């Protein structure tokens, strides 16, 4: 009985160590600046992730990104409705605002378009 208990404890210990190791290897590295604020790359990751979580839609790319006096402003391209062929899928541009710590403070859709369509030409360009 003692050997069975020791074997079970050993297996339990191994599972615990394996679990702890896999959690450590999957943790994302923090990309913070020297003052503890998130780096621009971390802000981009947080913005995409938070927008996806709130809308349930896939953020495909970031088309503009700038630091503002209150934090960050981004424009994120999102797949709103997948269609076949892919060039007919509906995309949208969302304006996303984050505070200085990279937390989303607001978003709004500013444009909706088919993936295969380009912007109309503007005069003088």
Could you walk me through the main structural features you see in this protein, from its secondary elements to its overall organization?
The chain is 33% helix and 34% strand. The protein contains two helices and four strands. A four-stranded antiparallel sheet has the order 1-2-3-4. The model is unreliable at 13-29 (pLDDT under 50).
Ranges with pLDDT <50 over ≥5 residues? 13-29
Question: Numbering strands along the chain, what is their spatial order in the largest sheet?
Answer: 1-2-3-4
Helix content, binned percent: 25-40%
Total helix count? 2
Shape: elongated
Binned strand content = 25-35%
Tell me the span between the first and last alpha carbons.
84 Å
How many strand elements? Answer: 4
Nearest-integer average pLDDT: 80
Query: Helix/strand/pairing class, anyone?
Result: alpha+beta
SSE topology string: HHEEEE
What labels describe this entry?
4 strands, elongated, 33% helix, single chain
Question: What's the structural blueprint in terms of helices and strands?
Answer:
Blueprint: H1 2-26, H2 40-55, E1 58-67, E2 71-81, E3 90-99, E4 104-114
Antiparallel strand pairs: 1-2, 2-3, 3-4
């Amino acid at each position: 009985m003692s050997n069975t208990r020791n074997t079970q404890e050993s297996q339990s210990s191994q599972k615990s160590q394996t679990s702890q190791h896999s959690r450590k290897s999957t943790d994302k590295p923090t990309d913070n600046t020297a003052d503890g604020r998130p780096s621009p790359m971390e802000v981009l990751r947080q913005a995409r992730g938070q927008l996806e979580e709130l809308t349930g839609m896939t953020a495909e790319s970031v088309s503009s990104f700038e630091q503002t006096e209150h934090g960050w402003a981004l424009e994120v391209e999102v797949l709103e409705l997948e269609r076949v062929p892919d060039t007919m899928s509906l995309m949208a541009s969302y304006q996303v605002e984050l505070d200085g710590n990279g937390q989303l403070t607001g978003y709004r859709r500013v444009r909706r378009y088919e993936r295969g369509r380009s912007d109309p030409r503007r005069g003088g360009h």
